[in-house]
Amino acid sequence: MAEAQNIPAGSTTAGSIAVAAESTVATRMSAPPSFDVADFPVPHGREEEWRFTPLERLRGLHDGTAVASGEGVRVDVEAPEGVTVETVGRDDARLGKAGTPVDRVAAQAYTSFEKASVVTVAKEAVLTEPIRIAVHGQGGVAFGHQVIELGAFAEAVVVIDHTGDAVLAANVDYVLGDGAKLTVVSVQDWDEKAVHVAQHNALIGRDASFKSVVVTFGGDVVRIHPRVTYAAPGGEAELFGLYFTDAGQHQEHRLLVTHNVPHCKSNVAYKGALQGQNAHAVWIGDVLIEAAAEGTDTYELNRNLVLTDGARVDSVPNLEIETGEIAGAGHASATGRFDDEQLFYLMSRGIPEAEARRLVVRGFFAELVQQIGLPDVQERLLAKIEAELEASV
Predict the structure, then answer these.
(1) Could you tell me if 285 and 383 lie in one domain?
(2) Segment 321-358, tens digit of pLDDT
(3) pTM over 0.85
(4) In terms of domains, do 266 and 164 share one?
């Protein structure tokens, strides 16, 4: 089954040293969640959730001046038998079930899209082939909404591939029924001038398992905001991320896992490599354990590898705990330059410097790439990493 949809054109340390800070501030947004863009003030860059983002490069997504124009983006969905793919209007009751917009751009996206894509995997269906969603920018400004919903005890893998050139603001909802298992691989491989701001919302049912792998290479500015909440006890979430930030690029990943019910688990691991002047990566990892969430087990990790001078990382892990009755909670953040000892070791065994650098970087990312579980996607991403490293030699 396949469907094509057109969304109408309608504090930091400079240099290559990162800053890592702990605070509960980042879980407190400047405005409460809302579907109405009018409920959010226009950001000025001083707000906690916007202080790292280059607002002037968002092409008007943050202040309402961006309006749908040009060809927008084309969305093609390839799905195996047993999957329902629909294009629906704004009044469909399934839209917004997984989460509410938490900033002005997400609200702007919600109030501005005309048609949404809904992909439904039936109860107890176990897919042997992935669902593939291709989002291709065709120029101009677009707003979108995507829903992936799994019935109870269903199992599926979804690959969402972003390519081309566009200014895109979008919301993506993942709704998992009880006992369901969903793996989502979201690849941002945009052209160099693209702008992509998205909020990903996952609502996890009883004893359900959700794995997200976010991979970011391309684009001028990419800001992804994954959020997880639990509908019932027993849910598990794994959030993995890989990013390679080049000269002039701004790549920002802001995560929030809200443990709001008892006996749920979460594990977050994001890794990034940076090279080139003014390459800027931002990682914000927020975990909130509410008073009712006894028995929570959670951990988050961010590691960054700085390959050249002139790059900058901001890494901010946040952990807020409102109950003492938890199984475990922790976080870690580490950033460093290229390991000269590793490089020397490899070169002393006859491996040329350029190849030694590639081996070290591939090893840095290997664990996360393996989480994808799809050979064709893994090979493509490893090839992309190789191409990025070739450009730096």
Answers:
(1) no
(2) 998 899 998 988 888 776 666 666 566 777 776 777 77
(3) yes
(4) yes
